UniProtKB/TrEMBL annotation:
InterPro entries: Aminoacid_DH-like_N_sf, NAD(P)-bd_dom_sf, THF_DH/CycHdrlase, THF_DH/CycHdrlase_cat_dom, THF_DH/CycHdrlase_CS, THF_DH/CycHdrlase_NAD-bd_dom. This is Bifunctional protein FolD. Residues 6-120 form the Tetrahydrofolate dehydrogenase/cyclohydrolase catalytic domain. The gene is folD. NADP(+) binds at residues 165-167, 231. GO terms for molecular function: methenyltetrahydrofolate cyclohydrolase activity; methylenetetrahydrofolate dehydrogenase (NADP+) activity.
Length: 301
């Protein structure tokens, strides 16, 4: 029997209805949630993603500030932009689109963002919070995957989860989030020997490798849940994930499509984090998470 489809577009749509209500409540109290998106350079893919984020803001009533810097903008310029946004009380979330041009140090930029506005969850403080199991801004893509998994009704505790890809923005945080939920987590990566030997054991297989066609049915356990985080543009213009969807869906119990799976959820969770930040700024929700702890300024050598 073919797998059931986990529809990220539909779930996003549903969640965004609730977001509009939360924005309305905030606006009633005089708070207009605001998200700043900084894009350095003009990569085509980044433009599409940033465009989707801005669209989602509009859809939910979040004010968005799109700051486009030229590809040769200096690191100092990017840092100055962040400083300005850190100090701007009308901005509740700051996102610097990755990847950045090679002359800019990603770590310096991410550590410059106020931990209170780090809606991507990429600041070291938020990464540390995730490691210790009390995440403040969970990174958007793994956060979205977690909600997609929830819709299947499966309890991940005790399940074999295999994550393919060990990036800082998807694979590693994904593994940590599911470990927190008591799954048995394996993280595979480019140097993993005999990938299929690991993936075949997965009750839940999450693939974020950026390699079209990487996962074939022989590597998938019958009845597994398959989450495809990959987004690959083929020469013919088609967008596909890392999983051979048509073949694998005959073996899986649940599967996410690309597009329309994880991608829209990434954007949706960005809005969720921005609303949480705005609510927290207003003290509409418990702000104990930060425990009045002032995050240290991290200085790079
Ligand atoms: N600081 C930072 N934060 C990010 O969250 C971040 C980033 N940098 N850099 C790049 C990745 C990628 N990303 C996506 C956003 C939207 C879709 C999306 O909307 N996908 C749709 C359409 C895809 C398309 O048309 O190309 C879909 O899958 O259905 C996908 C991927 C956010 N990222």
């Amino acid at each position: 029997m073919a797998a059931r489809i986990i529809d990220g577009k539909a779930l996003s749509k549903q969640l965004r209805v609730g977001f509009r209500e939360r924005v309305a409540r905030l606006v009633e109290q005089g708070v207009q949630p605001g998200l700043a998106v900084i894009l350095v350079g003009d990569s085509a893919a980044s433009k599409v993603y940033v465009g989707n984020k801005i669209k989602a803001c509009e859809e939910c009533g979040v004010r968005s500030l799109h700051i486009a810097l030229p590809a040769d903008a200096s690191e100092a310029e990017v840092l100055a932009t962040i400083e300005r946004l850190n100090a701007d009380a009308t901005i509740h979330g700051i996102l610097v689109q990755l990847p950045l041009p090679a002359h800019i140090q990603v770590a310096r930029v991410l550590e410059a963002i106020s931990v209170h506005k780090d809606v991507d969850g990429f600041h070291l403080y938020n990464v540390g919070a995730l490691v210790t199991g009390n995440s403040i801004f969970p990174p958007c893509t793994p956060y979205g995957v977690q909600l997609l998994l929830d819709t299947t009704g499966i309890d991940v505790a005790g399940q074999n989860v295999v994550v393919v890809g060990a990036s800082n923005i998807v694979g590693k945080p994904m593994g940590l989030m599911l470990l927190q939920r008591e799954a048995t987590v394996t993280i595979c990566h480019a140097r993993t020997r005999d990938l299929g030997q690991h993936t075949i054991l997965a009750d839940i297989l999450i693939v974020a490798a950026g390699k079209p066609g990487l996962i074939v049915p022989e590597m998938v356990k019958r009845g597994a849940i398959v989450i495809d985080v990959g987004i690959n543009r083929l020469d013919d213009g088609r967008i596909v994930g890392d999983v051979c969807f048509d073949a694998v869906k005959e073996k899986a119990s649940w599967i996410t499509p690309v597009p329309g799976g994880v991608g829209p959820m990434t954007v949706t969770m960005l809005i969720e984090n921005t609303l949480r930040s705005a609510e927290r700024a207003f003290k509409a929700v418990d702000s104990d998470e930060f425990q009045d702890w002032e995050a240290p300024t991290v200085r790079s050598p």
